[in-house]
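Reply to dn_fold:

You asked what the input looked like. This is it:
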Amino acid sequence: MKAKKLKKLRKKVHYFYVLKSDGLFGDFVLYNSEEKPIEYFTIVLARDAYEAVKRYAKRKHCLDEFQFGPEECSKTFAKYKVLPVEKPFNRYTTYWY
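and this is what came back:
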């Protein structure tokens, strides 16, 4: 690849923290309802949160969980929690099923 294409690609791609739930119905908490520290998350390089979930599932060999691909949903029914590395705040958190 030429340097020009790599520069354009670098602008589009971002790092994301991805966490799979511990059980059913969005169990993303550790002990006593405390949020999990960042060290439990996996860092994935992707263009958006949708692609981050797909890449995480492919890496962990659980891509067959999706029938048509991941769908965004509420925290109650979520299997995956995605945060951008630049802004790891609750405001930018997305949940996927």
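The first helix runs from residue 3 to 12.
Hope that clears it up.
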